Inverse folding.
């Protein structure tokens, strides 16, 4: 039994239909636990006050914004190489979710930046990179919407995802070069010297897990919808031919 | 290949080919900006590198959809695809032809517009160098965007939405070269990055663009 | 020698099978005329044969660089003259037949005229002259006689006949009699069946059965 069997629409519908209630429940549970713990059961930080608690939305959203694009890149490659429809549709399904995570990251960042830096927006490298990432998401979604034939759209968006990834990566470094910024370094890393203290990062980990599960849930739901919609399109087109 | 390059340039230069439109647009940008921000020479000198690069980029964007759309509509693209020319080569040649009729005039006009915008003296050399090095990348990245949207009826707006984010690294390094050059600083680093982006785009993007064209012809 | 053949060919338009089980073979000197009602998939079949889109099933066998394709659209550039248009394609295909093609398609008087000033029929003749400069043996043509007058149809029929006599082959979708000694393939029996009746199933049919 190979993993590619799940790329068959039938198998995917069965498996995802079975998994969906469990993943949904689990993501709600982790998000509630993580956010309640983070917002209400952690002490205010001495430097930042209670504003710091926005990290429980900001950091996971920002991480997922990048992860969603990475997932789209991988599924696009799978579509181009192995022609599994589910893979292309999963990429399509993930794009608006990724865009929303990017927007959440940007908005929570602005809300946090106001009291911290005294400004809603600064052309800081990280902020700028995220804004550019949001534009890449927009272009990708717009291309899917504009092309009528779904297989053509899948091919074109896959090529765009690959080229876009390279250029998004380039932009990230171009922007770093262009302006060294205000933003603090990563709050979480494996060499734990500069990490935020345990009190904060345990609930943060739970929140990140919650966001990952939320992403999986939403992608499953949207991919199932896309598969159904493709089936409907095929039926309508066949009806017209007959 | 050479035949295709000559044909594309001939088509662009003859009536209705839109040759010179980009150049006129570039001029308009250089005129409109001082009208918007005020005639203060110091302010203009400060923003000149950025405005000139943004203007060149937008002028280039303006004519991108002509690279493939006309050939696609009248069936030439079908015929090219069944000809012995590899599609990758055809794409690269068409992007080069676009550069010769759009990018090159922009490069040569840029110093004159620099005068209008009060660009500091040391900046002129680097303005020309950075545009000469960067505009081929704009043409070939644009050709990729045009290839993605060539099958669409009104793809122009979508193409801009797709191409502009891809232009950002080129713009950042290109404008940085002029900014540093105008301020008398060392330009080697951004210039090297700009050259790397151009070389990489020229080498790899024709393959992606050709793939997109083939998909659109199906 | 077989110049072009199709085995159990199925073709799709916009992802939906339109024809299936198409078989034919062309050898030097043969022409095949495709018939069938509008929308049956003649253009799709010809584009597949020309290599512009992949077949859904089955395969097409042809030696490399044998097929020259003439679509509905001629690919004629309005701002170039007749001679320039042909010279370009001759250069692309690496042949030197542009002048001969101009004479053969009776375009000599128009050679220096811009294509924008040609009538629809003259433009069509120019489009067909392009087939001559490709130097390729198999001509795949989609409704080549549209907007041609009777004399031009006659001329074109002669050109195709000469091409066949010189060892070429032609696959033509047309409803007009070109006066060729050509086999006729009616595509109606090859119309793709619905998946439920044993036709080709798409991945999305499977998911819901």
């Amino acid at each position: 039994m190979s993993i590619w069997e799940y790329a068959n629409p039938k198998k995917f519908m069965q498996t995802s239909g079975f998994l969906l209630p469990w993943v949904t429940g689990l993501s709600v549970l982790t998000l509630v636990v993580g956010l309640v713990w983070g917002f209400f059961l952690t002490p205010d930080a001495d430097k930042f006050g209670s504003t710091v608690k926005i990290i429980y939305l900001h950091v996971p959203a920002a991480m997922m914004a990048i992860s969603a694009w990475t997932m789209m890149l991988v599924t696009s490659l799978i579509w181009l190489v192995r022609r599994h429809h589910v893979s292309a549709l999963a990429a399509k399904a993930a794009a608006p979710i990724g865009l929303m995570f990017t927007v959440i990251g940007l908005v929570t960042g602005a809300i946090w930046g106001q009291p911290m830096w005294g400004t809603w927006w600064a052309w800081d490298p990280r902020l700028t990179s995220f804004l550019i990432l949001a534009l890449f998401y927009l272009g990708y979604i717009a291309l899917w919407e504009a092309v009528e034939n779904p297989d053509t759209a899948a091919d074109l968006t896959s090529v765009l995802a690959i080229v876009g990834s390279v250029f998004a990566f380039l932009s990230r470094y171009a922007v770093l070069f262009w302006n060294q910024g205000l933003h603090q370094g990563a709050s979480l890393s494996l060499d734990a010297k500069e990490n935020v203290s345990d009190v904060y990062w345990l609930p943060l980990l739970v929140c990140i897990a919650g966001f990952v599960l939320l992403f999986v849930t939403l992608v499953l739901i949207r991919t199932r919808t896309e598969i159904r919609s493709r089936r409907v399109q095929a039926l309508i087109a066949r009806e017209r031919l007959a | 290949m050479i035949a295709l390059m000559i044909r594309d340039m001939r088509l662009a230069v003859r009536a209705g080919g839109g040759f010179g439109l980009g150049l006129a647009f570039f001029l308009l940008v250089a005129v409109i900006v001082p009208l918007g921000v005020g005639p203060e020479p110091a302010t203009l000198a400060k923003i000149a590198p950025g405005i000139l690069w943004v203007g060149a980029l937008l002028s280039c964007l303006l004519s991108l959809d002509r690279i493939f759309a006309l050939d696609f509509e009248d069936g030439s693209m079908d015929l090219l695809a069944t000809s012995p020319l590899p599609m990758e080569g055809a794409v690269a040649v068409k992007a080069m032809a676009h550069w010769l009729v759009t990018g090159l005039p922009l490069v040569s006009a840029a110093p004159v517009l620099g005068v209008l915008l009060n660009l500091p003296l040391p900046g002129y050399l680097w303005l020309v160098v950075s545009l000469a090095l960067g505009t081929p990348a704009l043409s070939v990245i644009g050709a990729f965007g045009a290839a993605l949207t060539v099958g669409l009826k009104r793809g122009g707006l979508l193409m801009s939405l797709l191409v502009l984010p891809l232009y950002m690294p080129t713009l950042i390094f290109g404008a940085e070269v002029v900014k540093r050059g105008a301020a008398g600083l060392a330009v080697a680093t951004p210039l090297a990055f700009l050259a790397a982006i151009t070389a990489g785009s020229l080498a790899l993007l024709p393959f992606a663009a050709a793939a997109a064209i083939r998909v659109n012809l199906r | 020698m077989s110049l072009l053949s199709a085995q159990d060919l199925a073709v799709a338009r916009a992802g939906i099978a339109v024809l299936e089980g198409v078989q034919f073979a062309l050898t030097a000197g043969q022409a095949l005329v495709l018939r069938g009602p509008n929308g049956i998939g003649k253009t799709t079949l010809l584009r597949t044969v020309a290599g512009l889109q992949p077949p859904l099933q089955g395969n097409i066998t042809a030696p490399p660089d044998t097929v020259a394709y003439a679509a509905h659209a001629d690919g004629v550039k309005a701002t170039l003259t007749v001679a320039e248009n042909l010279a370009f394609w001759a250069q692309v295909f690496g042949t030197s037949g542009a002048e001969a093609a101009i004479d053969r398609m009776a375009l000599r008087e128009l050679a220096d005229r811009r294509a924008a000033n040609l009538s629809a029929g003259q433009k069509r003749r120019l489009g067909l002259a392009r087939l001559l400069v490709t130097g390729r043996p198999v001509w795949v043509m989609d409704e080549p006689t549209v907007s041609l007058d009777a004399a031009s149809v006659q001329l074109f029929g002669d050109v195709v006949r000469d091409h066949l006599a010189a060892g070429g082959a032609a696959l033509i979708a047309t409803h007009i009699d070109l006066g060729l000694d050509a086999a006729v393939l009616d595509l109606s029996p090859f119309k793709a069946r619905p998946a439920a009746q044993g036709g080709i199933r798409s991945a999305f049919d499977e998911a819901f059965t």
